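S.,

Sequence below, as promised.
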Amino acid sequence: EDTPIGFAAVGEMDGEAYLAELNVSLEHQGRGLGRQLIDQACVWARESGYRSMLLSTFRDIPWNAPYYARQGFSPIDATEWHKPGIAAQRAHEARWHDLNRRVIMRKLL
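The prediction came back faster than expected:
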């Protein structure tokens, strides 16, 4: 019907691909579309020369960090929080969220 049912927004952060947002409309969730969008985002990132992809999400919501972990993402080490893009993202998120609930994750491509 030419109506979007989901999207993945990808950019760059600290020299890595960055999955800024992933969204699948509620009525289409549970069909693997999110996984397919992540897979295609990773294909784009690899073809664009990136070796990894970052994202930031809630650590304790089942369809956030646990979902991304099943897709191959792992939490980054706190020693990387000083990188300019990561530090800016964390500062931005701190305005609205408890940073103890947030996690930045990486998937090697």
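The helical segments are 33-47, 65-70, 84-94.

Coffee later?
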